[in-house]
Amino acid sequence: MEWKPEEEGLRQILTLLKESQSPDTATQRAVQQKLEELNKYPDFNNYLIYVLTKLVSEEEPTRSLSGLILKNNVKSHYNSFLPEVAEFIKRECLSAIGDPSPLIRATVGIIITTIASKGEITSWPELLPLLCQMLDSQDYNVCEGAFGALQKICEDTAELLDSDALNRPLNVMIPKFLQFFRHSSPKIRCHAIACVNFFIMSRTQALMLHIDAFIENLFFLASDEDPDVRKNVCHALVLLLEVRLDRLTPHLPNIIEYMLLRTQDAEEAVALEACEFWLSLADQSICREVLGPRLPALLPVLVRGMRYSEMDVILLRGDRDDDADEEEPDRDADIRPRFHKPRSHTIKHNVGGGDSNMSGGGDSDDEDDGGDTDSSLSDWNLRKCSAAGLDVLANVFGADLLPVLFPILKETLFHDDWVIKESGILALGAVADGCMVGMVPHLPDLVPYLVCCLSERKALVRSITCWTLSRYSHWIVSQSHDLYLRPVMTELLKRVLDNNKRVQEAACSAFATLEEEACTELVPYLGHILQTLVFAFGRYQHKNLLILYDAIGTLADSVGHHLNKPEYIGLLMPPLITKWNVLKDEDKDLFPLLECLSSVATALQSGFLPYCEPVFRRCVSLIEQTLNQNIANTQSPEQFDAPDKDFMIVALDLLSGLAEGLDGHINHLVLNSNLMQLLYQCMQDPMPEVRQSSFALLGDLTKACFQHVHPYIPEFLPILGMNLNPEIISVCNNATWAIGEISIKLGPETSKYIPLVLNHLVDIINRPNTPKTLLENTAITIGRLGYVCPHDVAPVLQQFVRQWCTSLRNIRDNEEKDSAFRGICQMIQVNPGGVVADFMFFCDAVASWSHPKEDLKEMFTKILHGFKNQVGEENWRQFTDQFPMQLSARLSAMCGI
């Protein structure tokens, strides 16, 4: 029997569908509830598909809504549909695929795709053959509807379509799609290219067999009159550049000309897609060769693409130059989510030996932000893509870009139209990273010019100037303070208090970048800086406050203990603590404030003592609440939501800051709390970031108040041993560091725990491609274990000594290095044979010391002379003849050898 709806049921559902379009939220809630109840009736979904496909008398939005509700039901409950209901829905979808209404066709396509993605594509074998057959229909609606459905299926299940499970339908589908590239309807041409494009990145074999036909067809469509077709052609060429450069190479000069044209397309969506091509091309080794000759044509196009459109200026209220004191508060939707970076233990390097960033471009997260920090424009757009394109090309061509760029900059930077001038300043910032060396001779003129632009009338010019100046902060800091750093800083701080919110934001971010570069160079100006930042507290609205916390935290990281002066503390702490007291425990604004306080506590050291108790207690309470909520959620998920573990991570990190800054003063706070029990739970959390931060805190507490850690060692060390997994680098890194800190305090008692950790550490130090920080921490910890238990570690000396020596040759003299080298010396005394094969590396590592303590120097001398006496004068001379001059000189000066 064919299913038929009952009049009454149909009437009810139609009423509901109409009510759900009501703007009133109470009505919508009531509708939601009724829909949930109706889901209990097995044939409710039959009614929904019936309204969508058969009730042509109803308005299209009502029919489409019925289909979207059905789509959600399929998504949530398809596996519990009765077989006859599922069959009915599939049949109806296929019969309605050619509905005269584009909206209804699209809705039917979405339902088909949703069913297919529920794993049903394998148990609905007739679907793909039928859809492919419908493509040949003389009825345009049927062909377009089928193509629309196929496009969605290709997007959602591309991998499955290329698998043996379905007998590789793409072998039929791809040649079929290619036939429609020259169809008379632009919509169909668009579908055809879009379908094939989904298979480029995976190098699908069926497509690779027809790659030449595909490229030939793309060229045929290059100047199609339909913008969507042009956009899809550009997208295909961008993808092919990454995947099949070999096939495009003979055509590249023509493709470059084509993309130059398309990057200037009147339709922004096409221009944006074409502009991506330059980003992709910059990744290819042939970029310099093929693009060099066309830079004079390309750069003006990119810089033009960086201009704000009239629409942008309206959206950004670019004609309004002061909005900071308006009553209109920031909307939560405009505030980007922040991501906390958990603490990671790193080691300071000797200059030149480390990986300090000498490029002159700070490595901030929003490198190519192009200064649009407004959410209405935070989507990727032509301006940002053009700026990113110029940035990557500057990195490819370096100073060779400048002869082409300078005439453009001369024209734009001094233009009367502020929109053009603004794009020139953005271009100047975009090339900072790649062209730094070539820019240096021009910066003495450009930086003062930019400082003047900070007082421009137009807010959008002031804000982009902040960003551009920050990109040159490395140079600014290394010059005469009077000529550059001071004027830049003075003007930037004025902009921190600008009357325009966007300028405040850009200035605050730029100032944070300057702080990172300048570090202690800022100490003479601290009073003025703090007065400005604290004054901003009173003025800033919600969104910019979050950036202000960041600027204050960065300042604390940059100047360290220089902040610990009563007058600075008196300025800085009251507004921070006021905010701290106002924010509720569940307010996410606590994250940036906690991060900021963590930096401030570490910098102020004893100066933070008056504030530490309430801060400590609240952090412990945040950790406890999060853990309790997590347990509640695990036991009854339908009743309790999962907690946001970021609260716990940030609280652990702030406690680390307190432990590091206050040192022994944290003792009584830990004593009167349940922190150690909570830490034990955090160390076993499934989320890596929680473990990472808990191991950092464990290491800091070990240094600050070991008496509270000691009783827990038997529980803690096995957990640390289980986390020595280099696949999760930051967790492994902090666990390794904590083991080293514990061993130093625990002394010879560490012996019984060595079997839990030593093999893992030796494996890590010998792994290829281990990140430098992890190698260094691992070497230090192995050295420390050997220092406290030389007899336990020395037998395997030969397995790690070469790697150990090369890992530590670049790090600065410090306590960690001292204990590690004492360990290696003791191990060599226990097992001298273990170092013989790699003695040259040991000599090199010893020479990396600038000023070892006297007794450590004696250890080095004893080992070197012992080795020399053992091998005899002649062999020793042959051995040392292989040394570089510098090494011989260092060793002779240090050990008299």
UniProtKB/TrEMBL annotation:
For this protein, the record's Gene3D superfamilies field holds:
Leucine-rich Repeat Variant (1.25.10.10)
Biased composition, Acidic residues: where in the chain? 363-372
Q: What's an example GO cellular component term for this entry?
A: cytoplasm
Alphabetically sorted, this entry's keywords are:
Cytoplasm, Nucleus, Protein transport, Repeat, Transport
Q: Name one GO biological process term.
A: protein import into nucleus
Q: Bias category Gly residues: which stretches?
A: 351-362
Q: Where in the cell is it found?
A: Cytoplasm; Nucleus
Q: Where is this region: Disordered?
A: 344-375
Tell me where in this chain the Importin N-terminal domain is found: 31-99
What Pfam families would the database entry show? Answer: HEAT_EZ, IBN_N, TPR_IMB1, TPR_IPO5
Q: Where are the transmembrane segments?
A: none
Name by which UniProt lists this protein? Importin N-terminal domain-containing protein
Organism, as annotated: Pieris brassicae (White butterfly)
**Taxonomic path:** Eukaryota, Metazoa, Ecdysozoa, Arthropoda, Hexapoda
